[in-house]
Specification:
The complex is a heterodimer. By secondary structure, chain A is mainly α. In chain A, 77% of the residues lie in helices and 0% in strands. Helices cover 54% and strands 15% of the residues of chain B. Classes of the chains: A mainly alpha, B alpha+beta. At the A-B interface, helix 2 and helix 4 of A face helix 2, helix 3 and strand 3 of B. Chain A: The chain crosses the membrane at residues 105-121, 133-154, 161-183, 189-209, 230-256, 262-283, 295-317, 329-347, 359-378, 398-416, 436-454.
Chain lengths: 457, 123
């Protein structure tokens, strides 16, 4: 063995050791470098004492002691490192990631600023938030979501074809929101205000999955993104509430009225910018912070199951039947959405290879009880509709109910197969991700087809 | 004879500060120096030394800098600060008190053999 060979071998061993050590969260890059220098000092001395390079390496590593003990000692001094910190810019170990996160931050600020400015642009044409609710209602999502989609498309370096599709879809949304002659108090206006954001959110999804539209994994990522985005948005909104309270309170103390500024500038600009910021936060923290939505799911699945079962028992006990008003239908729609959310986010966090357990059975119970309740509600509703005729609201609510029911019914079937170990878990995951276009399609139908279908009612 | 872990831990800070008071140094050299000074009796590990150095740096008693040494290797050097020197003086005062008190007990004035503890290791 030549000296050069032995040198290369030693370097390879050092590289391996480095990789091994860097996997420890307690040990940062600089610590690894410091320890490596120590190791090299030790090796040099042993070689000088007459050992061969590889022998010296073994002895030196042995002297360094077990990595477990070492990292435990480091963790005692640097306990903060065990709390995964979200380093937004700077301070990251790796200059390449650092550079990237700084560019991300710049792009996010540009997009958030763009959103904040864009919502004030209609004022140049004489629109005001207070008087033109019929304009801002359906258009609100158009001031926020295109900017988020732009940020995501930029981050993923989307192909020109995809960018074209995104632009076309947002334009279509703008057309749907503004072209139909809807009265200020029409049902369709409210429906569009609710469904256009949903339809556009799926356009954001298109920007999110960018590279691989058909991949089930990427669609699942989008579901995760949606959940985390929602959680972050709520957190930002809470912080915003505190900010508003202090702004109004402190300025009032010196005799300046700030309500106008808050309602005209702070809230609208803040909300649209917060959407972009929330999306950016989710992207930035992806692998750093534990996902929150699945944790909430774990917490609330048993509670919702208990509540629904109690409702079913009470319903059969009292035998009064469900009082079905229009509000009730929406309430039960929302209930199905919550159940579906609980199902989706526990799927999103589940290892598909783990065998079925108690939690899966619990979830099956949740879905089945929601289904039973919904079938009861649906029976009442269809009777009402055949009796009194339909309106856009009823048709939309009914359509949603049917879509959610179909999804949950098949999910329950697949879960039953999984709990009885007849079907793989992946089937359930594929079913959910494959169903996403159905929601998008329905939202677009409500926005585009409903107004003319119901004579702009 | 090996010094117990507790005693090693208690004396670690003044020892490191004392070595750094002689001039800047780096981890491996500090460990070697401690080995020399105690003739290998003090059982210091890397897991003790490096976190301690980082703690002293956080407290502002030492400061560190990366320097390139011959052989194209980066090495982290530690240097004692004024606050570190003050801390060393304070630790030294405390240790002197402890050592003096022990000496008083073990070798009292006029009674050298009062202590029941054998001073020399029988082995």
């Amino acid at each position: 063995m030549t000296a050069a060979d032995s040198h290369d071998g030693l370097e390879a061993q050092f590289a391996q050791w480095r990789q091994y050590v860097q996997r420890r969260p307690e040990l940062q890059r600089s610590d690894t470098e410091e320890l490596e220098d120590h190791l090299r000092g030790s090796v040099d001395e042993l070689v000088a004492a007459g050992l061969r390079a590889d022998e010296a390496f073994l002895v030196a590593v042995k002297r360094l002691g077990g990595l477990d003990d070492l990292s435990r000692e480091f963790a005692r001094e640097h306990s903060d490192r065990l709390w995964k910190q979200l380093v937004l810019t700077g301070g990251a170990d790796d200059p390449a990631t650092d550079n990237r996160s700084r560019r991300d931050l710049l792009a996010m600020i540009t997009c958030a600023a763009g959103a904040a400015v864009s919502i004030k642009v209609p004022e140049l044409f004489g629109m005001t938030l207070e008087q033109d609710a019929a304009f801002y209602g359906p258009n609100f999502a158009l001031f926020a979501l295109p900017w988020l989609a732009a940020f995501l498309a930029w981050r993923r370096q989307a192909r020109p074809a995809l960018i074209g599709v995104l632009v076309a879809l947002f334009a279509l949304g703008a057309v749907a929101a503004n072209v139909y002659p809807l009265a200020d108090d029409s049902q369709s206006l409210v429906l569009t205000s609710i469904h256009l954001p949903i339809a556009l959110w799926f356009v954001v999804g298109l920007a999110y999955v960018a590279d691989d539209l058909r991949s089930s994994r990427r669609r699942m990522d989008f579901i995760r993104f949606t959940g985390e985005c929602f959680v972050y948005f709520v957190l930002i909104a809470l912080g915003g509430g505190v900010l508003i309270a202090f702004t109004i309170g402190t300025f009032e103390a010196i005799g300046i009225e700030s309500e106008g500024f808050v309602s005209q500038w702070l809230v609208p600009c803040g909300v649209v910018a917060a959407v972009v910021v929330a999306g950016w936060l989710v992207e930035a923290k992806q692998s750093v912070v534990e996902n929150i939505a699945p944790v909430l799911t774990r917490l609330f699945t048993p509670l919702f199951t208990a509540a629904l079962l109690a409702f079913l028992v009470a319903l059969t006990w009292t035998s009064t039947g469900i009082n079905v008003e229009r509000e009730a239908l929406i309430l039960f729609d929302l209930l199905l959405v919550v159940v579906l959310g609980l199902l989706l986010y526990s799927i999103s966090a589940r290892d598909p290879l783990v065998p079925p357990g108690l939690f899966d059975t619990l979830q099956l119970a949740l879905v089945v009880s929601a289904l039973v309740i919904d079938v009861l509600v649906l029976r009442e509703i269809t009777e009402r509709i055949t009796e009194y005729g339909t309106t856009p609201n009823k048709a939309a609510a009914l359509g949603e109910n049917v879509i959610l029911l179909a999804n949950l019914a098949w999910s329950a079937w697949l879960m039953l197969g999984f709990v009885r170990r007849r079907a793989p878990f992946a089937a359930l995951e594929r079913w959910q991700t494959g169903y996403l276009p159905v929601y998008a399609g329905w939202a677009w139908i409500v926005v585009l087809v409903f107004p003319p279908l119901f004579n702009y009612l | 004879m090996k010094v117990t872990k507790d005693l090693v831990a208690a004396s670690a800070t003044p020892m490191v500060l004392g070595i750094l008071a002689d001039g800047e140094s780096y981890g491996y050299a500090i460990l070697k120096r401690i080995n020399e000074l105690s003739a290998g009796e003090l059982d210091w590990t890397e897991g003790l030394l490096y976190p301690l150095l980082h703690r002293l740096e956080r407290l502002g008693h030492v400061e560190s800098s990366w320097q390139t040494v011959p052989g194209e290797r980066r090495r982290k050097y530690y240097r004692i600060t004024t606050s570190g020197l003050a801390e060393l003086a304070e630790q030294r005062r405390q240790w002197d008190t402890v050592v003096n008190a022990l000496r008083e007990i073990w070798v009292g004035p006029g009674d050298v053999r009062r202590s029941a503890i054998p001073l020399a290791d029988p082995a």
